[in-house]
Design goal:
Elements (H helix, E strand, L loop, with lengths): L9 H14 L4 E5 L2 H9 L10 E5 L4 H4 L2 H11 L4 E5 L13 H6 L3 E4 L3 H10 L4 E8 L4 H13 L5 E8 L1 H9 L8 E5 H7 L4 H8 L3 E4 L3 H17 L4 E3 L11 H10 E8 L3 E10 L8 H5 L14 H5 L31 H9 L6
Parallel strand pairs: 1-2, 1-7, 3-4, 3-5, 5-6, 7-8, 8-9
Antiparallel strand pairs: 6-11, 10-11
Helix pairs in contact: 1-11, 2-15, 6-7, 7-12
Length: 365
C-alpha cells in the first residue's frame, strides 16, 4: 500500500535490527507509551528482532485501559436514563464496569450510539432537542482538540442538551509517576508520536533532565519503532539523556498551535485517577469554569459512584511496565476477550488484547 509499505520494508527493518545489535553492549529496559506501538511491536515481532539484552515493556498508553472503573459505571448509569442518547467511540462499549458494560445497556434498550467524531454527537443533540445527548470524552491529548471543539461549538450555537463525560489523561505526568516509583526499571522511553503531533515535545525536556532518561518521539510503523529503539539504545550506551524526534514527518517541537489553543480554552488541568494505577497529580483534563454547564458528571450527579477493581486483574502492573500480560495468572484463563476482567483485554490498544491476539492464550501455549 502506497505510503505504508515503505515503513514496513523488511530489508530496512533488517538493517535497523543489525544496527541495534551492533551498538548494544549491556541490558536496557525501554518503555513504549502508546498502545498502538504495543500492538505493532507484538504483531510484527519487533521485540524478537532486537537483542535479548533489550527488554521492551508496555506503558499506560491506552486511554481506554486507564479509564477508572467508577467512570465506566458512571457512564453506564447515565446511559441507562431513558431521556439520554449516550454517544461514544466503539472501543468503550465492551470495557467492563463493575457489573456490566455499555453494550449491555444498549441490549436492554438504552439509546447507546457509536459515533466517529464528537461533532457527530453535537449534531445528534441538535436533531433531538427533547433528549439529553452525552459524549464519552476519553483519550490522551490526541483526542482533546476534537472534544474541546465539540463543546466550544455547542456553546457557540446554544446547544444546551449536549454534555461531555470527561476522562482525559495526560502522558508526561504518567511517565513521571513511573519513573518516580521505587519499583521502576525503565531506562528510556519511546514517546507517543500522535500525542506529540498535538502537544509538541517541550514537556519532555525537564523529565529527561530530572530522571536522566532518553526520550525518543516515535511513530507507529515497524521501521519507526525500530529506528526509535535504535536512537534510544544509542543514547543509553553513550550515557546521554536527551529528547529526540524520530517522527519528524509529523511532529514539530511546538506541536499544533491551533489545537493547543482550543484545549487551553475549554479544558483545565486536574488530578486524575488511572485504572489500576491510582491518582496521578495534574494528569488529566476537565472542563474549565467557562464550560462547566457541559459537564455530564455534574448534570447527572454521578460523581459519587465509586467501585473496586477485580483482585484477579493485574492490569495495573502491566500498565506500569512491571509485568507483561502473559505474566498475569488470569491471562487467557479467567480473562479473555469474551470475558474480560479489565480494559487491557478488550481495548483495541490494550496490551493484553495484543498478546492474546498475536501470541495466543495461555492454553494455546
Amino acid at each position: 500500500m502506497k505510503y505504508l509499505d515503505e515503513y514496513r520494508d523488511p530489508e530496512l527493518a533488517k538493517k535497523f535490527s543489525e544496527e541495534i545489535h551492533r551498538v548494544t553492549t549491556k541490558p536496557h529496559v525501554i518503555m513504549e507509551v502508546c498502545g498502538g506501538q504495543t500492538h505493532a511491536i507484538v504483531k510484527f515481532g519487533i521485540d524478537q528482532l532486537i537483542p535479548e539484552e533489550i527488554t521492551l515493556v508496555h506503558g499506560p498508553g491506552c486511554p481506554v485501559c486507564v479509564t477508572p472503573l467508577e467512570l465506566i459505571d458512571q457512564a453506564i448509569a447515565i446511559a441507562s436514563h431513558p431521556e439520554v442518547i449516550f454517544c461514544s467511540f466503539g472501543d468503550m462499549l465492551r470495557v467492563p464496569g463493575s457489573s456490566k458494560d455499555l453494550f449491555s445497556v444498549k441490549a436492554a434498550g438504552g439509546d447507546v450510539r457509536i459515533v466517529y467524531s464528537p461533532m457527530d454527537a453535537v449534531k445528534i443533540a441538535q436533531d433531538n432537542p427533547q433528549k439529553e445527548v452525552v459524549f464519552f470524552a476519553v483519550g490522551f491529548e490526541t483526542t482533546a482538540p476534537g472534544n474541546a471543539m465539540a463543546v466550544y461549538q455547542a456553546k457557540k450555537h446554544g446547544v444546551k442538551n449536549f454534555s461531555l463525560l470527561v476522562s482525559h489523561v495526560l502522558v508526561p505526568p504518567a511517565m513521571e509517576a513511573i519513573l518516580s516509583s521505587p519499583d521502576n526499571l525503565v531506562k528510556g522511553f519511546l514517546a507517543a508520536g500522535h500525542v506529540c503531533t498535538v502537544m509538541g515535545y517541550e514537556e519532555y525536556y525537564p523529565i529527561a533532565r530530572k530522571y536522566k532518561v532518553p526520550i525518543v518521539v516515535t511513530g507507529f510503523e515497524p521501521l519507526d519503532i525500530l529506528q526509535g529503539i535504535c536512537m534510544c539504545v544509542k543514547q543509553l550506551e553513550e550515557g546521554r539523556a536527551e529528547v529526540e524526534n524520530q517522527y519528524a514527518r509529523s511532529v514539530h517541537r511546538e506541536g499544533n498551535v491551533a489545537a493547543r489553543k482550543i484545549i487551553q480554552e475549554v479544558f483545565k488541568v486536574r488530578p486524575r485517577k488511572w485504572r489500576g494505577i491510582g491518582e496521578i497529580p495534574q494528569s488529566g483534563f476537565d472542563l474549565s469554569e467557562a464550560y462547566t454547564d457541559f459537564d455530564a458528571q455534574r448534570r447527572f450527579d454521578v460523581s459519587g459512584i465509586t467501585t473496586e477493581e477485580s483482585p484477579l486483574c493485574e492490569s495495573g502492573l502491566i500498565l506500569q511496565g512491571i509485568k507483561k500480560p502473559e505474566g498475569c495468572p488470569a491471562f487467557g484463563k479467567e480473562c479473555t476477550p469474551e470475558h474480560p476482567l479489565g480494559a487491557t483485554m478488550v481495548s483495541s490498544e490494550g496490551a493484553c488484547a495484543a498478546y492474546y491476539r498475536y501470541r495466543g492464550s495461555a492454553k494455546q501455549r
